[in-house]
Amino acid sequence: MFSTLRRAMLFRRFPAVISPAKRTFSSDKVSDEIDLRILNELNQEMQSIFGAEPPATMDYPELESSIGSTKPESCRQYEQPAKLATEDMSKLTHVGVSGEAQMVDVSSKDNTKRTALASCKVNLGKRVFDLVLANQMGKGDVLGVAKIAGINGAKQTSSLIPLCHNIALTHVRVDLRLNPEDFSVDVEGEASCTGKTGVEMEAMTAVSVAGLTVYDMCKAASKDITITDVRLQRKTGGKSGYWSRGE
């Protein structure tokens, strides 16, 4: 049985080179005269065991070059996404030609005025919201401490995000507002500079660190606090110019 299955597997990989007439099939260990009727029966048996037939030349590119491409559409469908993925990788400036991480060389870029606005939301829940509103948290002024932490976070972005450039920021603003509609803190951060690369990461780091600080200041009262919707809202300057979410 093992010999029959082994031969059938071999025949299934070479259907394109077997003619309707009798042929002599040869390998290092096998050399038999094959009757087409027996071959078809074996193929049908293997198909009932293993399912649909594999592509004739999937594992044998040397055969494909001699008899032409016989890959079915089910195989070709994987080639196009792979090609697109390679093309998309060329657009990722932090990825080198071999796929390794790299820091972008911005020396050839022009110095322009650049700004970025980001935001996030910290969901407190009613009980913690009331405590923050009344300034009764044990660690003190939640919003005041988070504001300073966010500003400091923006200045430390290149230390936290490894491939970010060390930017000379000209301004950082972080505002936190209590939102009684959903018992949350709305955080907004803005960064600006005049330089060769944008400040989007600085703005998003600012709001992220501010949100984490709110959590730290309030975690003794609740572990259910969540930080959500960290996002860039707007940016200006640079080659891509103005961009705004929703426009």
TrEMBL record:
State the source organism's domain of life: Eukaryota
Instruction: Print the keywords alphabetically.
Output: Lyase, Molybdenum cofactor biosynthesis
Q: What reaction does this enzyme carry out catalytically?
A: (8S)-3',8-cyclo-7,8-dihydroguanosine 5'-triphosphate = cyclic pyranopterin phosphate + diphosphate
Q: Where is the Molybdopterin cofactor biosynthesis C (MoaC) domain?
A: 103-238
Cross-referenced SUPFAM superfamilies: Molybdenum cofactor biosynthesis protein C, MoaC
Question: From the UniProt record, which GO molecular function terms apply?
Answer: cyclic pyranopterin monophosphate synthase activity
Q: Enumerate the HAMAP family for this protein.
A: MoaC_B
Concerning NCBIfam families, the annotation shows:
moaC, PRK09364.1
Q: What is this protein called?
A: cyclic pyranopterin monophosphate synthase
